Amino acid sequence: xxxxxxxxxxxxxxxxxxxxxxxxxxxxxxxxxxxxxxxxxxxxxxxxxxxxxxxxxxxxxxxxxxxxxxxxxxxxxxxxxxxxxxxxxxxxxxxxxxxxxxxxxxxxxxxxxxxxxxxxxxxxxxxxxxxxxxxxxxxxxxxxxxxxxxxxxxxxxxxxxxxxxx
Length: 166
Fold this sequence. Notes:
alpha+beta; HIT family, subunit A; 5-stranded antiparallel sheet; globular; Diadenosine tetraphosphate hydrolase
């Protein structure tokens, strides 16, 4: 694996601490929760009582999707028991759907949570043969690659939706 930048890179000083941190979307004082107010149902690929799987608004990775809980909670620990119990099986279904796409070598699961206070995770498929994008390098590379068109995102979303429906 490698960075998508030429050497030599220079280390910079970390930013000043911001304490308290500003409110995220969905927290008191922050913007409305995007996952709760999700209005673009065309980007919802699959859902059940606990989970909604969405295609992103923009991505450069064919098959990148995000999974959000249907309840507004922030972390794994806050999920109701039925959400906790179904998380693993739903993740396995998403993983199988993405691995069935042409050109996918591995599927990585990420949870950051810095932008919004609604529990969600990202599934990011690593393109086959792209060993430079292994592991934690994939999101860094993703930021440097040209974005897919809306038509490409929608087409792969239809494939994922079809597989999830089985």
